Amino acid sequence: MQTGSTCQFTGGCSLPPRTKLPEALTKELEEFINNLPTKEGHLVTALHKAQSLYGYLPLEVQEVVARLMGTPLSKVYGVVSFYTYFTMVPKGKYPISICNGTACFVKGSEKVVHAFKEQLGVEVGEVTKDGKFSIDVLRCVGACALAPVLTVGEKIFGGVTPDQVKDIIAEFK
User: Fold this and answer.
1) pLDDT per residue over 8-66, tens digit each?
2) What confidence tens digit (pLDDT) does each residue in 51-69 have?
3) What is each CA distance from 115 to 76, 152, 169, in whole angstroms?
4) How many Cα atoms sit within 13 Å of 35 on the Cβ side?
C-alpha cells in the first residue's frame, strides 16, 4: 500500500494525484546523472541530487531517477525508504531536524522539540501553513559534543535550549 492511499476491501486503492515535475529540474537531473563517471554504485548520489533539486522524492521523481539510472523502481524506492535522510513528503523551505540520540535526549532535546512544536504550531513531520518550516526528529547527527543539536537547512545549532527556539526561528523568517 502506498502512503497516502485509501484502500477499502471492496473498492481497491486510490492513489494520490500525480505531481507534474518542472521540466528544467528534470533536465538538470538528467545532465547530472549523465555526467556521473558510471551509474553503477551512484544511486544514492543521484537521489541526493534529485532531493536537492525537488526538495523531496515523490514517486514521480523516483521514476525519473530509476529511468535515468537504468535501475528498477523497486530498488530506488528501497533506497529512499531505507535512508532517513531521504523524504517522500514535502519539507518546509527551512527544514528543522532535531537530534534525539542518546546524548541529545539526556541533555533535553525533547524539551527543544516541544518548544519548536509550540512556536510553529505543527507536529513532527508537518509543514507550517506558510510552507517555511517543517520539524523532524533524527536519531543521531554525529555531533554529540554539541548536544542537544539541531539543523535548520544546512545550518547547525549546538547546545540548544527551549529558550533559544524563538530566536532560531526568527533568524529564518
Assistant:
1) 444 555 555 666 888 989 999 999 999 999 889 999 999 999 998 998 999 999 999 99
2) 989 989 999 999 999 999 9
3) 36, 15, 11
4) 7
How far apart, in whole angstroms, are the C-alpha atoms of residue 137 and residue 27? 33
Distance, CA of 15 to CA of 18 (rounded, Å): 8
Q: Which residue from 94, 61, 93, 91 is spatially nearest to 79, judged by alpha carbons?
A: 61
Query: What are 9's three cell numbers?
Result: 476491501
- What structural domains does the chain harbor? 22-82 (1.10.10), 94-170 (3.40.30.10)
Average pLDDT over every residue of 148-153: 95
Give Cβ neighbours of residue 163 (< 8 Å, ≥ 6 apart): none
Q: How far apart are CA 117 and CA 136, in angstroms?
A: 10
**Contact by Cβ (8 Å): 132, 119:** no
Residues sharing a CB contact under 8 Å with residue 81, sequence separation 6 or more, in sequence order:
88
